[in-house]
Every structure is written in structure tokens, then in C-alpha cells.
Amino acid sequence: MKIAVFGTGYVGLVTAVGLANTGKKVICIDNDLEKVEKIRKGISPIYEPGLDALLLKNLERLAITSNAADAITASDVIIIAVGTPFDGNRIDLSYIRQAAREIGEAIKNTDDYKVVVVKSTVVPDTTMGVVRPIVLEHSGKQEEEVGFCMNPEFLREGNAVEDFLDPDRIVLGVSSPEVEAMMREVYDGYRDSAILITNPTTAEMIKYTANSFLALTISFSNEIARICENLPGVDSEEVFNGVIHDKRFSPIIGKERITPQLASYLRAGVGFGGSCFPKDVKALRSFSKGLKVDGKLLDGLLHINETQLEHVFSMGLKKFSGKARRIAVLGTAFKPNTDDVRESPGVKLAQMALGQGIQVAVQDYVALSNTKALLGAQVEYYDDPLEAVEGADIVFVTTIWPQYLDISEEDFEKHMPEQAIMVDTRSHFKERKAKKWRHRIGVGQPLPVNGEVEYSLRNNGYGIH
Ligand code: UGA
Description:
Layout: E1 2-6, H1 10-20, E2 25-29, H2 33-40, H3 51-57, E3 62-65, H4 68-73, E4 77-80, H5 94-107, E5 114-118, H6 126-139, E6 146-150, H7 160-165, E7 170-174, H8 177-186, E8 195-198, H9 200-229, H10 236-244, E9 252-253, E10 256-257, H11 277-290, H12 296-318, E11 326-330, H13 345-355, E12 359-363, H14 368-375, E13 380-382, H15 385-388, E14 394-397, H16 409-415, E15 421-424, E16 440-442
Parallel strand pairs: 1-2, 1-4, 2-3, 4-5, 5-6, 7-8, 11-12, 11-14, 12-13, 14-15, 15-16
Antiparallel strand pairs: 6-7, 9-10
The structure holds uridine-5'-diphosphate-glucuronic acid (UGA).
């Protein structure tokens, strides 16, 4: 079986390399010649742990071309993994439509049965209502001559290779039993038990529901955290821990309690970012408006996410009565193990500060060049976190890079000015809070009782009086 993958972004490339790793012949299509050259040499154009090594290992089964027509004609299954940019309200399907047109044109003169797979995240009915008619129109083929599948991706940036190689589920929304058979062959190198068969529109809905649910958990945690911040001595971490111990959440099997990874989303923070959650929840919300569904929950979770950033920013600013002169942002990647800065809380905090005339120093281990593309010369860039915090009134720890844990609080205190404060937005240093670390406050955590952080967060009118 030969497989073509349209688009070599992080989804397309990881999919292509992951399928090649199970012995399939895969040809990637991309019109960015620089990317094509890199991939041909076995160099991944994106930062994703483990991808370079897997790419090199599978180079002989992996081809790449900018000639879409030849690649499509030679393949049995064509996977569309192009971008679906977001205009603030809905996703733009122009790259999807373009790929569907090219597929239609290319298969016009072939006799073989082809399956067209949509892997890009698209709103319900895109595969059957948009892609299918375009492919059929441009190919002149009948319904039974081409199959369609919606196969959403569930990769987490930074863990994409691991997630692809050991998937928790492979959702195949198929248009016919024949498509199901071909798609099972595509994934025959993976655990059969992970495969869920459904129709294309349900598959599209599964993807949006999964991301909206995770985003909802984050916003729920942040709202609970804001309540806890107003209750003396109440730490939201302890509150969530009490909830997680519900056996419906963390079942006790034998004598062992199984804590789900989902527990990590039940935690106060700086809100979600990245290229998926913000975009997917907004796209689902605008799609649901079109269906006249009252979407207050989705609106609410988006609102909490937007205001959480302002909330965290003001936690730091309060100490200086709104007059901080300089801040440091530790971590501009939207999460660890990626250089992606799209919708990154760290970048947004920097922009908020710049908007108020505050000087900004930013630090990251891998995302500085992408950060420069967004923030330019307005901010100072540092590789070393201890250099970045020098002279800063407020230090926001926004990305939970594990490397920060190697820095002692003594070192932070030595480099931060006397009056400075650290806002530990994701409780990265929570284990150290018992030591009454003078500089640190945690989102969703009580202020140190006898600590030297003397100001109160309890002045928003809703707390205990
Ligand atoms: C997310 C989903 O987790 C994947 O399952 C999905 O395939 C992917 O979107 C996608 O649609 O492509 P990703 O955006 O890579 O993956 O990252 P997550 O680790 O889920 O984090 C998303 C955002 O939520 C980040 O800003 C992260 O810092 C934030 N987050 C995560 C929290 O604020 N709190 C948490 O407890 C966990």
C-alpha cells in the first residue's frame, strides 16, 4: 500500500514518519521547497522531540515532493494534513479545498480505487459536505469509485512522536466498509484495540469535543482557583487533590489508585494557549451559533481563559500599585518541549506589559527565535533565566520547563531585586512553598501566612470580609 500525505506541518510530518515506521511507503507533498530539501536530508523542519531520529531511521521508505499530481496518482490513500487557519471566528478551508481540487484532478485518469482522508481539524460535515463534492467534481468519478475518511489527530505538541507511535485511540470516520478495510490496513502496525470506527461527521465532532472538554477542565480549574485565592489558607491544589481522589475519577484497582493524566488539567494556571485549544473551541462555538445552539458554556470557558491572563498579570502588578518598571517572562513556548509560541501565555503577558510601557525581558530554552518573530526588538532576550530576572520587579514563570527546577530559590533570590516578586503561574515550584520563599506567589494558592508578601489579593469585592 502506498500513502501520500498532503502537508508536512507537525501533524502531516509526524503521521508520514509514523506510518513509514510501520513499513508503509509514504510520499509527502509540500510546496515549500525549503522544507522539501530539509526533509529529504533527514532534517525535521519543526522542533519535536524524537522526530529527527525517527525521520532518519525511515528515510528509505519516505519520499517527499512538491509535485502533488504524481504523488497522488501513485498512491492508494491520500491523507490531507494541511493547515486550517483561523480568522478569529471560523476556520478557513481554502487549503483543504485546494488539496481536494488537486486530488480530484490527479485521480481523473486513474482506474484504481482511492481513499481520501481528512486529518486536518475541520468542523462537522467538512469531509462529506465539502471535500467529497470537490473531489468528485474535479475527478468526474462516481461515489463508489472514491472513498472518504475523517481521521482526526490526537497528538500533543512536544509528545507528538510518542502519541503517534503509541496511540490511545485511532478514530476512523469512514464512508463505506471498503474504506474501513483500507484504513485498517494503513494502521495495521498499531494496536487493533485502539481503533474506533464511526462515520466522518462523528469523527469531526469527536475531535472538537475532545479539545473543548480539556479546555473546559482548564477554565473550570482557573475559576475555582480564583475563588480559593479569596479564602485564607485555602490552596486550590489541595482542593483539586480532594476531588481527584473520587474513585470515579481515580479508580482503585487492587490496592493501587490509578491517577489519570487528566488530573494534570485540573490545576490552576495561566490559561490555555497553543495552536489547538483556543482555535478549536472558538471554531466549535461559531459553528454551534450557526446551528442556533445556546453556547453559554463555550462562551464562558473562553471568557475565563482570556481573563485569566489579565488576572495573573494583575496578581504581579498589585504589589507595585500598578507601577512595575520591568518584568521578566520565563518561558515563551506555549508549553514545554516545543518551540511553538502561537497563542502563548508568556508572549501575551509580554505584550500586555509592553502595552503599559513596562520593560520586558523574556527567556526560553528553544522558542526564542519564534518569539523574536512576534515581539521583535521591543523586548530583551535571554537564554539564562537568572540573567533574565536581573532587575525585574515581577518574574512570571509561564512555561513549566523542567530545567527551572534545577535552580535553587537562593539563586533566584540572589538575582532578583530585593522588592521583586515571582508569580509562579503553574505552581511549578509548589514543593518549595513550605519554605516561605519570600519572592514567590502561586496562582490559586494562599499567600504565605507569615511571609513577607504583605499585600492582599482579597480586594475584588467578592471575598470574605
Ligand atoms: C492538544 C490536545 O491535548 C491534543 O490531544 C490534541 O491532539 C491537540 O491539542 C491538537 O488538537 O492538535 P496541545 O495543544 O499540544 O494538544 O497541548 P496540551 O498539552 O493539551 O496543552 C494545551 C494548552 O493547555 C497549553 O497552553 C497548556 O499549557 C495548557 N494547559 C495544559 C493548562 O493550562 N493546564 C493544564 O493542566 C494542561
